[in-house]
Amino acid sequence: MDGRDKGRPDRLDWPPGSHRNGMSRPHRVHVKSFGCQMNVYDSHRMADTLAPAGYRETAEAADADLVILNTCHIREKAAEKVYSEIGRIRVLKEEAAAQGRRMVIAVAGCVAQAEGEEIIRRAGAVDLVVGSQNYHRLPGLLARVHAGEQIVDTEFPVDDKFDALAAPRPEAIASRGISAFVTVQEGCDKFCTFCVVPYTRGAEVSRPVEKIAAEVERLAEANVREVTLIGQNVNAYHGLGADGRPATLGKLLHRLAKVPGIVRLRYMTSHPRDMDDDLIAAHGDLPALMPYVHLPVQSGSDRILAAMNRRHTRQDYLDVIARLRATRADLAFTSDFIVGFPGESEDDFRATLTLVEEVGFATAYSFTYSPRPGTPAADMEDQVPDEEKSDRLQRLQAVITRQWRAFNGQFAGRTVEVLLEKPGKLPGQLVGRTPYLQAVQVMAPRLLIGSVVPVTITEIGTNTLFGALAEQPSTRELTAAGA
Ligand code: SAM
Ligand code: SF4
Q1: DSSP assignment of 123-152, as one string?
Q2: Cis omega (within 30 of 0) on the bond before 15?
Q3: For ligand 2, atom 1, which residue shows the shortest CA distance?
Q4: 78 or 352: which carries more pLDDT confidence?
Q5: 30: three-class secondary structure by DSSP
Q6: CA distances (Å), 198 to each of 74, 114, 134, 188, 468, in order?
Q7: Average pLDDT score over the chain
Q8: 272: phi then psi, degrees, rounded to nearest 5
């Protein structure tokens, strides 16, 4: 930690609302998220935590008194993007300073956690580096920044971040739409040899069932209809249940399915080893649990899975898929793949291709292996040359794209349940999502936003489906939807 008075212009009063003539304006915070949905969730919680300290969110970094970059460290490119973004914000900060206004730059998230002091060394314009476990301390840290300190806070605290973070604000929930993410688990104890998460997010921690239920109830009261439970390793969830014993993710889903107003539940990201009986059974038992499962496998080769320390084989993965499919015939799967892991031969890579063919995914995310400093794989011999990695990525993506088109194609002429989310680009149009997260555009009255309606798919576009309401809503339904 380091405290230096930089002699910056500091017209911003601290604490907010302390302006001498009593005419203080709200402070404006701009939070930019990089990477996964957990970061989006954390960004919302940061904004909620800063709201009582007088901060209002702004979509424009140039207007902000505080810019928070909530970063991702999972691949090298993600980390480099942050440094170029800091460069862009530094220019805005200088422009603000020229107008006598102070802009504070904070770097949060996994890059902050992993690089700490290095960020301030590389980018002196940064005032605050705050690790992913310490967001609840933001108001206090900002007060110290305004008192002249430049701070790096990346300790893993003993206090419970979730208890200390502010609850979502009703007005903020409403502006964020009818679908929300809720972090139920953080960190990871698996230590896959390519992954930084166990180092940047720390050990696995689960939130208690009733605290999550209370958050979901608040979301439902503010008209949220769909909740996605998130965690780096979400199905390792083992939070305290109402009976005082650790609950499984399956049990948590059963509890949340009872919350009035919540019509869709999802969860991500899962590890194949943690797909237990409760969770598998929940797919058969809970109509609200969407039949769309993201289950990363990374590779189809047992040799590479062992080198990755995934702790499961290709066959284990296929068995889990088969058990899940047995619960519901309409289940569809997505996955994550890494190509070019150290030592991956052409035969290993082909095993990945055959696994993709064997499972048949709705879609999948695929990445070239990116060595992360401090992880075991970064020091392995036999690193695969970049051209080879890119070639394999293209070949894998060709197969995944073909499967994705085939998956979407089968919806032509079918009637599917669509949760209507928001107005579309055209007048009278709404946009919603199928159980498989496909976007659907449909002409429908605005009052139906937040309702699940049957839609007949008339056309398959590149990134969206087009459809028509299968049933015209009655006046009674419209009134109920608007009530
Ligand atoms: N917990 C999940 C699991 O067990 O697969 C993965 C979460 S990780 C945050 C998201 C994805 O990023 C991984 O599934 C993996 O495909 C990718 N990823 C992680 N580290 C990577 C690396 N070093 N290089 C390339 N991709 C990586
Ligand atoms: Fe990373 Fe997922 Fe492996 Fe944990 S289980 S180390 S988050 S890839």
Answers
A1: -TT--EEE-TT-GGGHHHHHHHHHTT-BEE
A2: yes
A3: 195
A4: 352
A5: strand
A6: 11, 11, 16, 5, 46
A7: 89
A8: -55, -35
Give the atom of ligand 1 at the shortest distance from the alpha carbon of 368. Answer: 25
- Cβ atoms within 10 A of the Cβ of 478, count? 16
Ligand 2 atom closest to Cα of residue 196: 1
**Average pLDDT, integer, range 161-179:** 73
Q: How far is the CA of 309 from the centre of ligand 2 (A)?
A: 10
What is the CB neighbour count within 10 angstroms for residue 344?
A: 26
Residue 462 Cα to ligand 2 midpoint, Å, equals 31
Q: Which two tokens stand for residue 363?
A: 């879609």
How far away, in angstroms, is 299 Cα from ligand 2 center? 14
As given in the structure block, the two tokens for residue 123 are: 């980018």
pLDDT value of position 371: 94
Give the other-Cβ count within 10 Å of 241's Cβ.
16
Instruction: Please enumerate in sequence order all residues whose Cβ is within 8 A of that of 418, keeping only pairs 6 or more positions apart, or say none.
Output: 432, 433, 434, 440, 442, 452, 453, 454, 455, 467
The set of protein residues with a Cβ atom below 6 angstroms from ligand 2 is: 188, 190-192, 195, 197-198, 232-233, 271
Q: Which residues pair with 130 in a beta bridge?
A: 108, 153
Q: How far is the CA of 210 from the centre of ligand 2 (A)?
A: 26
Question: By three-state DSSP, how is residue 246 classified?
Answer: strand
pLDDT above 70: percentage of residues in the chain: 90
For the record, the structure tokens of 42 come out as 């954390």
